[in-house]
Amino acid sequence: MFRGRDRRATVPGGAPQRFPGYDVLAEVPSWDAVTAGVVLARLGPPPPLRFFLPHEEAVAGALLDVLLAQHGEPRVPVLRTVDARLAEQVTDGWRHERMPPDGEAWRRSVCHLDEDAQVRFGRDFAQLSDDERRGVVQAVQDLAGAADEWHGLPASWLWSLWTRYACAAFYAHPWAWNEIGFGGPAYPRGYKHLGLDAREPWEVRDAHPDRDPVREPSPVPGAHPLAAQEPR
Mean pLDDT throughout 160-182? Predict the structure, then answer.
């Protein structure tokens, strides 16, 4: 179910590892059984969707791919995590007064993405090319930066909703931890080497410490992480 230290770690999109040789799943034996079970379950077969309807699933999945620049396999299965949160109403515990409940906002927004795609390109959002999808989503981000509305929803708060759900789902997954060199659960192992550039024995040095992963181009062709950008 997990890879040992002698196996190449899985990272989203199969990109070159920024932390060569690091695989958080090699640390599974140091976790307690309950923690290991929770994390490893995220690598299992995706459960049936419970919130998104079939025609919404394709749009929501394509939107999340754009936000996270997931244009190639292996993809972190963010859609199933977002769907589970919405089905179980596991929100952040608050919402902006001008926004509907999270589930309603997601349903309305995926519907409006299809509408915009039809107006601009004559096809559903999920049928667009990566560049076309980015253009549709970028228009929402542009309205967010201008503090404007999009189909009656405050674009800045909708953008916040999308990216909060997308990033929370993405960075809960071990493949994303491999990408950023995150050590995963610290219990019961803990940390002993505290301080600037003080690494634990299982940690790996950043191969590109001077490269800004947000501002510099991704090594994955076509990647364009909108979620990492400030609204324009």
Answer: 96
